[in-house]
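Continuing the series of single-chain predictions for the mutant panel. This is the parent chain; the variants come on the following pages.
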Amino acid sequence: MIFVTGDTHGDVDFKKLEDFARDNPGLTKSDYMIVAGDFGGVWWAKTLAADLKPYSALPFTVLFVDGNHENFDILNAFPVTRRWGGKVHMVRPDVIHLMRGQVYELEGNTIFTFGGATSIDRYVRTEGLSWWREELPSHAELDEAIANLKRYGNKVDYIITHSCGERALMYPPLRTRNIQMGRYPENHMLSYFEDIVTYKKWYFGHYHMDGVLNDNMTVLYQKIVPLGE
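Parent structure:
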């Protein structure tokens, strides 16, 4: 089984994974939980082992795209290897970073991933300590994404990102949320994928809310859904 959820922010929103594991005792490491960015488990170098221990203790394997609130100095220092047909950072054998612009073949599904977003609170953060410029996707990552998608004829089963395209911002519940967020470079970039890619479902986090935008797009935070729902 493959499941998708929203941001975990290290230990801040981790409890939903523990609760899910408790309520689904049949899950094993052959099952996957994909976190749609702001994983947050890779944050402090001195406490990295302790911070990741609860994730490894879960009965399933945790996969994640990166969000804007990640320590990219540490995350990008992990060796890059290939898994399921795409590039990954093997943070732990059961905690794996799905890198930007990759297409994975996982349990019979093709999954395109593209993390990153703008930290709207970066003005209260410190660069290199609690905020990193690498939070925004680069042109090289965009080019790699385009090339990888082309190999699949611009058709995948699922898209998992941290942020969303510009049109998604016009749908409820995002349009009607209490805290409005503007359009940022990643929204424009992700709109390009919406234009060129044929897909069944697109899941994203970032906005700290759960909701279905339309038949194809779902925003996640605390909710956990099976891939395809």
